[in-house]
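Dear H.,

Thanks for agreeing to be a second pair of eyes. The structure we're designing against is below in token form, covering all 342 positions.
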């Protein structure tokens, strides 16, 4: 039964929802490994080298009230995150961007809290694009209007991320009572209408069903400029309303990455290193991902918390992992691209 479904996947045939659910429910080790092999093969045939994406957190002073129940990023939400509020100055953004470029990482995500009408995103885009050759992803959620997106495009922004996280409306409004799903969908539509690459992904392990995930993945097809799908496994943060909610199991994350790769052979599939765990980055690659995010170089000049730390996104460690798997990392610094002695 499973082999027949995977044969269809290999042959690029459309899978039915009940067939995808069977993939999610795989328990047999042999079937699981076969699913991973198929997803990796599809990635290798349709994508190039493994993309590396670093991060600059612009501000954690989030104006959404009440806060999202799982958030460890916003000020005052978790002692494990950025508990104290901050807003990065222009020179801090510039120093971080230049260090990322110097390390050879080709891409940076500039992310920030909600409530600034996109002004913090535009400021960061201008700094990064005028002073570096980095590819730029902007992620400020639904805190954008059409004119903001047009200005981001004018500054050379490559990708804008607006994660829906779940399209189960009941669950969305329970976990994110200060936002609406409709707001996020609207921003995704605006990004697509303006012709910028859209990144929009799933937060899994928050109480959604397999049917919810499949519906979500199918729903994303409506956005014509969709180019990237992040898969983020839930991790609880101390002090938040969901601190006792269990973390998303690794095998569940791997199955979701693999299913996403089968459904979207040609798109970038992103896994932030902190959400899967530093020791588990290789498993995201085994499952068919081709972009590792939240990678932090050794000499990174600003603190990173909330979704990771310099220990969680270590560049050299991830490069070593990619090389050990026979894959090629997209790295611009020749010294780092050569074999690294460990």
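And this is the sequence the design step returned. I haven't edited it by hand at all.
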């Amino acid at each position: 039964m499973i082999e027949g479904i995977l044969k269809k996947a290999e042959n690029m045939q459309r899978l039915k929802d009940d067939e995808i659910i069977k993939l999610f429910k795989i328990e047999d080790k042999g079937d699981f490994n076969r699913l991973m092999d198929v997803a990796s093969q599809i990635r290798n045939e349709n994508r190039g080298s493994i993309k590396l994406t670093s991060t600059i957190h612009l501000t954690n002073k989030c104006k959404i009230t009440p806060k999202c129940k799982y958030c460890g990023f916003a000020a005052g939400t978790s002692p494990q995150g950025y508990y104290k509020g901050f807003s990065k100055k222009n020179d801090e953004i510039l120093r971080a961007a230049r260090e990322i470029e110097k390390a050879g990482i080709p891409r940076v995500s500039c992310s920030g809290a909600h409530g600034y009408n996109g002004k913090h995103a535009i400021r960061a885009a201008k700094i990064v694009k005028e002073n570096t050759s980095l590819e730029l992803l902007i992620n400020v959620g639904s805190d954008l209007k059409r004119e903001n997106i047009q200005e981001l495009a004018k500054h050379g922004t490559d990708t804008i991320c607006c994660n829906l996280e779940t399209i189960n409306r009941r669950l969305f409004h329970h976990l994110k009572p200060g936002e609406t799903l409709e707001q996020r969908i609207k921003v995704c539509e605006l990004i697509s209408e303006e012709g910028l690459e859209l990144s929009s992904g799933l937060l899994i392990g928050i109480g959604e069903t397999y049917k919810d995930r499949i519906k979500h993945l199918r729903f994303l097809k409506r956005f014509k400029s969709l180019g990237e799908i992040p898969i983020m496994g839930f991790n609880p943060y101390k002090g938040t309303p969901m601190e006792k909610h269990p973390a998303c199991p690794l095998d569940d994350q791997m199955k979701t990455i693999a299913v996403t790769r089968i459904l979207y052979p040609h798109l970038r599939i992103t896994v932030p290193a902190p959400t899967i765990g530093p020791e588990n980055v290789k498993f995201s690659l085994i499952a068919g991902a081709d972009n590792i995010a939240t990678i932090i170089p050794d000499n990174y000049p600003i603190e990173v918390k909330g979704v990771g730390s310099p220990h969680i996104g270590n560049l050299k460690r991830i490069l070593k992992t990619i090389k050990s798997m026979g894959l090629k990392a997209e790295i611009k610094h020749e010294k780092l691209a050569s074999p690294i002695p460990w």
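Two observations from my side: Residues 29-46 form the longest helix (18 residues). The radius of gyration is 19 Å.

Warmly,
E.
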